[in-house]
Amino acid sequence: MIYCGIDWAERTHDVALVDDSGRLLAKRHITDDAVGYKILLDLLAEYGDTEENPIPVAIEISRGLLVACLRATGRPIYAINPMAAARYRDRHSVSRKKSDHLDAMVLANILRTDAVAHRELPADSELAQAIAVLARAQQDAVWDRTQAANKLSSHLREYFPGFLAAVGVRREGVCHPIARVLLAAAPTPGQAARLTRAQLRSLLKKAGRKNTVDAEAERLQTALRASQMRQLPLVEEAMGRQTLALLRQLDAACTSADDLADAAMESFEKHPDAEIITGFPGLSALSGARVFAEIGDDRSRFADAKSLKAYAGSVPITRASGKSVAVLARRVKNQRLAGVGYVWAFAAMAHSDGARAHYDRRREAGDRHTAAQRNLFNRMLGCLHHCPTHRVHYSEAVAFPAPSETQHDEAA
Question: Among 129, 151, 379, which Cα is nearest to 267's?
Fold first, then answer.
């Protein structure tokens, strides 16, 4: 067997090939372009790489053009966590020296000695990979939108707190279309106070408001003309200009999040697993796309439900040494899947009596809110692993069976 390790960088990569004994067979320094990729393929072919028996590759990254092209060849690709690779490096050099060539050799030797302890990149379909790109980009856009909204809100508190009080009745706050349209028309307290009801009605209609326009215009006029502390006139005008700059960033983030959400849902609904996943209580097309983006459609990726739960961080870890035993929350996990899982569990309680009863039992047993929700998410993940694998739809009676009379008697 021949093993390949690639130390990835933005412009160049170091490649090392080792045999079963760990002996270095070849090394190359290639560029991150088509020419470098051809050199890599020629090097692998020189040492026996074939379509039937491809040489496995270890690399410290799971994305990018080089990884995509290598995956297209059908060879096993192992994305090694850089932290794990750093621990292996100490096995080869106690002097703690480091070089790109040495790192490539370390990666190749990881496959030689411990390939079974690491996981290949999943063989997801092209559609599944596209859904993952869109769903993750949409999540990033939501984070950018939240950051932009927080910056704008913090800035408004310094000179225009009355605006935040006027739009604070809506859950979206400054992200709401009415708030953004209104702020673009009147970015300072003086301009906002001079808005007439006719102008406010026009702005509300521009933002998409259709019902109770007159009542809302009257409420906004009263709120914007309320007494509040003010900055000096020139300072206030300058801060208004800064507000318009921050507002443009927020508008762009809101537009990106909405467009990517539509694209992610459209692609997700084309996948055969979409109907099964959205059949779970609390999962919409968007949240279902986020869940699917992290688990993919490679059925061999997770050997059992426990592996999926560990990947999502819903199961704890046990640290035992002698008489000391500690059960702790799992910190190393897929943060995106864990994040959507919290939202999923919260929404499931409103759409499933069984989920709500399960959460209540955990709370009565002494769990805090977050722990009880994580336990519910853990339960739902077991169902999620089973349903797409066996091509069955979610069943409330199977997921949360009613307690039997025997269980009632034992509890009594």
Answer: 129
Q: What angle do CA 114, 129, 266 make, to 5 degrees?
A: 155
User: Cβ contacts of residue 241 below 8 Å, gap of 6+?
Assistant: 187
Query: Both tokens of residue 205?
Result: 């209609």
Q: Pairing relation of β-strands 24-31 and 317-321?
A: unpaired
Backbone phi, psi, residue 230, to 5°: -130, 150
Across the beta sheet with 3-7, the strand order is 24-31, 12-18, 3-7, 57-59, 77-79
Nearest alpha carbon to residue 36 among 9, 2, 13 = 13
For the entire predicted model, the pTM comes to 0.85
Residue pLDDT, tens place only, 46-95: 998 888 899 999 998 888 889 999 988 888 999 998 888 888 887 766 66
Cβ–Cβ < 8 Å for 362, 356 = no
Candidates 3.30.420.40, 3.30.565.10, 3.40.50.300, 3.40.720.10; CATH matching 3-117: 3.30.420.40
